[in-house]
User: Fold this.
Amino acid sequence: MILALLGVVGLAVVAGVLFVAAANWAVIRGTGERIHTDLATVPARECALVLGTSRYLANGRPNPYFTHRMNAAAALFEAGKVNRLLLSGGSDGKSYNEAVMMRDALVERGVPADVLILDDRGYRTLDSILRSQTEFGETDVLVVSQTFHNQRALYLARAWNFEMEAFAARDVKGWAGARVRVREVLAKCLAFLDVHLLHRPPRRGDRNGTPSGA
Assistant:
């Protein structure tokens, strides 16, 4: 009985590992050629969609992911690669607003406030991707985030029939980076399930229907 139970548990573990690997491969596959790392060769686009995160960590220190994304977004604008920056992130409706945090950080970097568009309803990556077109009318978009996040964003965009490219902000090394990458493995699994099984709509219902990958 115990051996049979261990066998079932073992099979479940193997199946889980295989699913995680397959889901992550499906999300990553085909995105590499659409994620640019060289500012000099990144294609010019009308708008950069900058995906949000908190400016500060729980301990009050600056969040390096946020810092690197803002540096990348500012560099794109300064190089004339984009004309506008759409800043999309979550908000609690009170004191926490990722879009405002990004605006303030970019203005500090010399980016004119009048080229910054704020979207404080980008609660999920899918929301940010879809709202850039359905709510803000941006159809020539370059996504800005770290490579691992860009992979998921481009996968979701293509599933909803939006063709986008991305610019990779500098990644974060060390323990902090490793923890985020572990979470991202699970996030890619959820993105895969969203496209093929769960069909969760955008949080604000900006677009009806289900992904084309369903």
Remarks:
- The two ends are 40 Å apart (CA to CA).
